[in-house]
Protein backbone atom coordinates (compact mmCIF):
# COMPACT_ATOMS: atom_id res chain seq x y z
CA UNK A 1 0.00 0.00 0.00
CA UNK A 2 1.48 3.37 -1.03
CA UNK A 3 1.95 6.12 1.48
CA UNK A 4 -1.38 7.96 1.72
CA UNK A 5 -0.15 11.51 2.10
CA UNK A 6 2.32 11.60 -0.80
CA UNK A 7 1.59 13.57 -3.92
CA UNK A 8 1.00 11.48 -7.02
CA UNK A 9 3.98 11.44 -9.37
CA UNK A 10 2.96 12.25 -12.92
CA UNK A 11 5.01 13.19 -15.95
CA UNK A 12 4.54 16.84 -17.01
CA UNK A 13 2.58 15.83 -20.10
CA UNK A 14 0.30 13.41 -18.19
CA UNK A 15 -0.92 15.55 -15.30
CA UNK A 16 -4.68 16.18 -15.09
CA UNK A 17 -6.06 19.06 -17.10
CA UNK A 18 -7.71 22.08 -15.49
CA UNK A 19 -11.48 22.24 -16.00
CA UNK A 20 -12.42 23.27 -19.52
CA UNK A 21 -9.05 22.41 -21.10
CA UNK A 22 -8.60 20.06 -24.05
CA UNK A 23 -5.52 18.03 -24.93
CA UNK A 24 -4.76 20.62 -27.63
CA UNK A 25 -4.69 23.31 -24.93
CA UNK A 26 -2.12 21.22 -23.04
CA UNK A 27 0.09 21.02 -26.14
CA UNK A 28 -0.14 24.77 -26.69
CA UNK A 29 0.61 25.44 -23.02
CA UNK A 30 3.66 23.15 -23.01
CA UNK A 31 4.92 24.82 -26.20
CA UNK A 32 4.45 28.23 -24.59
CA UNK A 33 6.39 27.13 -21.50
CA UNK A 34 9.19 25.78 -23.68
CA UNK A 35 9.57 29.07 -25.57
CA UNK A 36 9.34 31.09 -22.36
CA UNK A 37 12.20 29.01 -20.92
CA UNK A 38 14.28 29.45 -24.09
CA UNK A 39 13.63 33.20 -24.06
CA UNK A 40 14.58 33.50 -20.39
CA UNK A 41 17.83 31.61 -21.00
CA UNK A 42 18.63 33.77 -24.01
CA UNK A 43 17.98 37.06 -22.25
CA UNK A 44 20.24 36.07 -19.34
CA UNK A 45 23.18 35.22 -21.62
CA UNK A 46 26.23 37.46 -21.69
CA UNK A 47 25.89 38.51 -25.35
CA UNK A 48 22.27 39.52 -24.79
CA UNK A 49 23.22 41.53 -21.69
CA UNK A 50 25.99 43.27 -23.64
CA UNK A 51 23.62 44.12 -26.51
CA UNK A 52 20.97 45.45 -24.12
CA UNK A 53 23.56 47.53 -22.28
CA UNK A 54 24.83 48.90 -25.59
CA UNK A 55 21.32 49.89 -26.61
CA UNK A 56 20.65 51.62 -23.30
CA UNK A 57 24.08 53.27 -23.45
CA UNK A 58 23.34 54.58 -26.93
CA UNK A 59 20.03 56.01 -25.75
CA UNK A 60 21.59 57.61 -22.67
CA UNK A 61 24.48 59.08 -24.65
CA UNK A 62 22.13 60.49 -27.27
CA UNK A 63 19.88 61.98 -24.59
CA UNK A 64 22.81 63.60 -22.76
CA UNK A 65 24.07 65.02 -26.05
CA UNK A 66 20.61 66.36 -26.86
CA UNK A 67 20.41 68.09 -23.49
CA UNK A 68 23.89 69.57 -23.78
CA UNK A 69 23.24 70.68 -27.38
CA UNK A 70 20.49 72.97 -26.17
CA UNK A 71 23.18 75.00 -24.36
CA UNK A 72 25.75 74.85 -27.14
CA UNK A 73 24.36 77.32 -29.66
CA UNK A 74 25.66 80.85 -29.78
CA UNK A 75 23.89 83.90 -28.58
CA UNK A 76 22.39 86.56 -30.91
CA UNK A 77 25.32 88.94 -30.38
CA UNK A 78 27.85 86.32 -31.47
CA UNK A 79 25.75 85.40 -34.52
CA UNK A 80 26.28 88.77 -36.17
CA UNK A 81 30.07 88.47 -35.81
CA UNK A 82 30.43 85.08 -37.53
CA UNK A 83 28.42 85.98 -40.64
CA UNK A 84 25.41 83.73 -40.35
CA UNK A 85 23.00 86.53 -41.14
CA UNK A 86 22.92 85.67 -44.84
CA UNK A 87 21.11 82.36 -44.33
CA UNK A 88 17.38 81.92 -43.89
CA UNK A 89 15.82 80.68 -40.68
CA UNK A 90 15.02 77.34 -42.31
CA UNK A 91 18.64 76.85 -43.35
CA UNK A 92 19.87 77.73 -39.87
CA UNK A 93 17.36 75.35 -38.29
CA UNK A 94 18.28 72.50 -40.64
CA UNK A 95 21.97 73.01 -39.92
CA UNK A 96 21.29 73.09 -36.19
CA UNK A 97 19.28 69.83 -36.31
CA UNK A 98 21.91 68.09 -38.45
CA UNK A 99 24.64 69.17 -36.06
CA UNK A 100 22.54 68.02 -33.11
CA UNK A 101 21.91 64.64 -34.77
CA UNK A 102 25.62 64.13 -35.50
CA UNK A 103 26.47 64.95 -31.89
CA UNK A 104 23.76 62.62 -30.57
CA UNK A 105 25.02 59.77 -32.76
CA UNK A 106 28.66 60.35 -31.81
CA UNK A 107 27.93 60.54 -28.09
CA UNK A 108 25.50 57.61 -28.20
CA UNK A 109 28.06 55.48 -30.04
CA UNK A 110 30.69 56.18 -27.36
CA UNK A 111 28.33 55.40 -24.49
CA UNK A 112 27.18 52.22 -26.25
CA UNK A 113 30.76 51.03 -26.67
CA UNK A 114 31.62 51.60 -23.01
CA UNK A 115 28.36 50.12 -21.67
CA UNK A 116 28.46 47.03 -23.90
CA UNK A 117 32.11 46.34 -23.19
CA UNK A 118 31.78 46.75 -19.43
CA UNK A 119 28.54 44.76 -19.20
CA UNK A 120 29.84 41.89 -21.32
CA UNK A 121 33.10 41.63 -19.38
CA UNK A 122 31.30 41.82 -16.03
CA UNK A 123 28.88 39.07 -17.08
CA UNK A 124 31.73 36.79 -18.19
CA UNK A 125 33.62 37.38 -14.92
CA UNK A 126 30.47 36.78 -12.88
CA UNK A 127 29.72 33.58 -14.80
CA UNK A 128 33.27 32.33 -14.33
CA UNK A 129 33.44 33.13 -10.62
CA UNK A 130 29.83 32.09 -9.89
CA UNK A 131 29.57 34.98 -7.41
CA UNK A 132 27.82 38.32 -7.44
CA UNK A 133 30.00 40.71 -5.49
CA UNK A 134 31.98 43.96 -5.86
CA UNK A 135 35.02 42.18 -7.28
CA UNK A 136 33.18 41.47 -10.54
CA UNK A 137 32.41 45.11 -11.29
CA UNK A 138 35.83 46.32 -10.20
CA UNK A 139 37.63 43.70 -12.29
CA UNK A 140 35.40 44.40 -15.27
CA UNK A 141 36.11 48.11 -14.85
CA UNK A 142 39.85 47.49 -14.92
CA UNK A 143 39.67 45.29 -18.01
CA UNK A 144 37.26 47.59 -19.86
CA UNK A 145 39.27 50.70 -18.99
CA UNK A 146 42.44 49.00 -20.16
CA UNK A 147 40.85 47.95 -23.46
CA UNK A 148 39.44 51.43 -24.07
CA UNK A 149 42.83 53.12 -23.42
CA UNK A 150 44.96 50.43 -25.12
CA UNK A 151 45.51 52.44 -28.30
CA UNK A 152 47.30 55.16 -26.30
CA UNK A 153 49.98 52.78 -25.03
CA UNK A 154 50.58 50.45 -22.09
CA UNK A 155 50.93 53.20 -19.52
CA UNK A 156 47.62 54.74 -20.54
CA UNK A 157 45.99 51.29 -20.57
CA UNK A 158 47.03 50.64 -16.98
CA UNK A 159 46.00 54.15 -15.92
CA UNK A 160 42.66 53.86 -17.71
CA UNK A 161 42.09 50.46 -16.16
CA UNK A 162 42.81 51.74 -12.66
CA UNK A 163 40.62 54.81 -13.14
CA UNK A 164 37.69 52.80 -14.51
CA UNK A 165 38.15 50.19 -11.76
CA UNK A 166 38.00 52.88 -9.06
CA UNK A 167 34.94 54.42 -10.69
CA UNK A 168 33.27 50.99 -10.87
CA UNK A 169 34.17 50.30 -7.25
CA UNK A 170 32.61 53.61 -6.19
CA UNK A 171 29.41 52.80 -8.07
CA UNK A 172 29.32 49.27 -6.60
CA UNK A 173 29.83 50.60 -3.07
CA UNK A 174 27.02 53.11 -3.58
CA UNK A 175 24.62 50.51 -4.99
CA UNK A 176 25.40 47.87 -2.36
CA UNK A 177 25.29 50.12 0.69
CA UNK A 178 23.04 49.23 3.61
CA UNK A 179 19.77 51.17 3.63
CA UNK A 180 19.34 53.58 6.52
CA UNK A 181 16.96 52.78 9.36
CA UNK A 182 15.48 56.28 9.24
CA UNK A 183 12.74 55.27 6.81
UniProtKB/TrEMBL annotation:
Highest taxon of the lineage: Eukaryota
One of the record's GO cellular component terms: TIM22 mitochondrial import inner membrane insertion complex
Entry membrane topology: Multi-pass membrane protein
Keywords in alphabetical order: Membrane, Mitochondrion, Mitochondrion inner membrane, Protein transport, Translocation, Transmembrane, Transmembrane helix, Transport
Compartments in which it is found: Mitochondrion inner membrane
Any Pfam family: Tim17
Family of the protein in this entry: Belongs to the Tim17/Tim22/Tim23 family.
Listed name of the protein: Mitochondrial import inner membrane translocase subunit TIM22
Native organism: Clathrus columnatus
